[in-house]
Amino acid sequence: MQNSFNLADAPQLFVQSAETFYTQALAARIYGDKSAFISCGFKGFQDTLWDVKGRHYFKSCYVEGAIDFIFGNGQSVYQDCMIHVNVGLLPEVNQGYITAQGRQSAKDLSGFVFKQCTIMGSGKAFLGRAYGPFSRVIFEDTNMGNVVAPEGWNAWNFRGKEKNFMYIELNSRGIGSSPSKRVPWAKTQSSPSKGVSWAKTQGASQLNSYSVESFINQDGWIPKLL
């Protein structure tokens, strides 16, 4: 699934400034609960994949974009997926954002979990920015290329709410995975609801609730679709 708007194969869009033409252009919008996508591709620039709501499983998929290109309130696991940042296609755009997760409260079940994924591409992009006051994104065993911005995370419109975010990185590798360069509010927190360093200090056993089985497959629906 592809939406070519904003992409470099439409040069007529770039006559004027970035502020004029770079805008949302969905490649896919997913509402349905218990939806699985196997070896699918999603390509766009801004807001490529609207992971709206419900439990979703993405396996061996390809997702490409630059700005908030995986966003919404889905309760989703992305496993063995290729995350391709294409910020470098448009030099007018200084930085991108891979995720914009919109969890609204501590009781909200939504969140994005990335397992054994690869992040590559061109330009620089944050792992995520907060699309909600309790935004939740977890990267586990992910290979992060140099496309990942050193700061990692952005509070966006929820500055002052950082203690409520759950932004976790566990056992990631690659040049873009250095926790020492992450934003201070992410790397210095120490509880499960307060940031990156919790995963480093507490270990993988504390993340069992974010396994495929516990997070989205509690009633065993995924094997029935495969």
Task: Please describe what this structure looks like.
The chain is mainly β and 226 residues long. The chain has one domain: Pectate Lyase C-like (3 Solenoid), CATH 2.160.20. It is built from five helices and 17 strands. The protein has helices at residues 18-21, 184-187, 196-202, 212-215, 221-225; strands spanning 28-30, 35-38, 41-43, 49-51, 55-59, 62-65, 67-72, 75-79, 82-86, 96-101, 111-115, 118-122, 125-130, 136-140, 143-144, 153-154, 166-170. Strands 1-4-7-10-13-16 form a six-stranded parallel beta sheet, with no helix packed on it. It has a six-stranded parallel beta sheet with strand order 2-5-8-11-14-17. Residues 10-19 and 188-202 have low confidence and may be disordered. Residues 187-197 have a biased composition (Polar residues). It comes from Cucurbita maxima. Its EC number is 3.1.1.11. InterPro entries: Pectin_lyas_fold, Pectin_lyase_fold/virulence, Pectinesterase_Asp_AS, Pectinesterase_cat. This is Pectinesterase.
Record keyword descriptors for this entry.
single chain, 226 residues, mainly beta, Pectate Lyase C-like, six-stranded parallel β-sheet, 5 helices, 11% helix, globular
